[in-house]
């Protein structure tokens, strides 16, 4: 099945103020850049057809298509500009999101025709006080529906609306803008530390959470496994030496 992953990285980043003018998609997490990490996790699930949508050439990634959107005033407008990229199955990721491995896996292997992945409530893990939408996954049978919803959101943005992915969800559900009322069929609720990064304060919170809770845990697990392997080899050595472990010859 033809699947394309489209990572949206063309936002204005008005709340992001890196002292080195580094795009937030290139913020570091244990020496790995955010966008690099997302692409690495995607490739671990055999996602090879990946397009980065951006207006900053610093966000060109190796072995990924680079696409400059015709318009990028609002997130919905950027998404609308990518219509020519939409495939039989399209996965839309927001490029400033730190995805947990489980969340990204659930997005990649989602098998229904339309899914909107997000969190309607605050995030207790990294203390984000509001809901967020992180990704979409849709088949080509929803292409026209999503395009029309994007157009509706762009008009709303021109009238003073946010024009964001929440507005797109409202338009898809035919409910008033700013409702943030989620359904139980198309909305896929994410209940872990996955979150987007809009400011340096949010980046610091996510980075500290990652170091304390994810990276350290994985390091301890790796150390524990290494100890078990070494103990096993010591056991085999001494057991064989003192005759407690025998090997049957095969003629």
How would you explain this protein's 3D organization?
With 251 residues, this protein is of the alpha/beta class. Helix content is 36%, strand content 18%. It is built from six helices and eleven strands. It has helices at 34-44, 75-80, 101-108, 143-158, 165-172, 200-241; strands at 3-8, 28-29, 32-33, 50-53, 65-67, 89-94, 97-98, 114-119, 132-139, 187-189, 195-196. β2 and β3 form a beta hairpin. The protein is globular, with a radius of gyration of 22 Å.
Order of helices and strands: EEEHEEHEEHEEHHEEH
Whole-number tally of structural domains: 1
Quote the CATH topology.
Spore Coat Polysaccharide Biosynthesis Protein SpsA, Chain A
CATH architecture: Alpha-Beta Complex
* CATH superfamily membership: Spore Coat Polysaccharide Biosynthesis Protein SpsA, Chain A
- Counting DSSP E segments of at least 2 residues, the number of strands comes to 11
- Low-confidence residue ranges: 218-233, 245-251
Give a concise summary.
The protein has helices at 34-44, 75-80, 101-108, 143-158, 165-172, 200-241, and strands at 3-8, 28-29, 32-33, 50-53, 65-67, 89-94, 97-98, 114-119, 132-139, 187-189, 195-196. The protein is of the alpha/beta class and 251 residues long.
Task: Supply database-style keywords.
single chain, about 250 residues, alpha/beta, Spore Coat Polysaccharide Biosynthesis Protein SpsA, Chain A, seven-stranded mixed β-sheet, two-stranded antiparallel sheet, globular, disordered C terminus
């Amino acid at each position: 099945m033809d699947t394309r992953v489209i990572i949206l990285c063309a936002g204005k980043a008005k709340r992001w103020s890196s002292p080195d003018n580094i795009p937030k998609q290139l913020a570091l997490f244990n020496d790995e850049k955010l966008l690099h990490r997302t692409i690495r996790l995607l490739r671990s699930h055999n996602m090879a057809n990946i397009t980065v949508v951006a207006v900053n050439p610093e966000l060109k990634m190796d072995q990924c298509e680079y696409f400059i959107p015709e318009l990028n005033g609002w997130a919905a407008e950027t998404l609308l500009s990518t219509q020519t990229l939409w495939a039989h199955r399209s996965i839309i990721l927001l490029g400033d999101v730190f995805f947990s491995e489980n969340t990204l896996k659930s997005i990649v292997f989602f098998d229904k025709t339309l899914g909107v992945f997000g969190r309607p409530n605050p995030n207790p893990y990294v203390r984000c006080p509001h809901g967020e939408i992180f990704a979409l996954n849709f088949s080509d049978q929803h292409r026209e529906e999503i395009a029309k919803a994007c157009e509706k959101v762009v008009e709303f943005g021109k009238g003073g609306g946010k024009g964001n992915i929440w507005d797109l969800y409202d338009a898809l559900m035919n409910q008033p803008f700013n409702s943030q009322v989620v359904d139980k069929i198309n909305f896929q609720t994410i209940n872990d530390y996955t979150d987007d990064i809009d400011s340096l304060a949010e980046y610091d919170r996510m980075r500290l959470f990652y170091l304390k809770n994810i990276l350290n845990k994985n390091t301890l697990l790796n150390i524990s496994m290494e100890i078990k392997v070494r103990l096993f080899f010591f056991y085999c050595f001494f057991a064989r030496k003192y005759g407690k472990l025998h090997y049957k010859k095969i003629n």
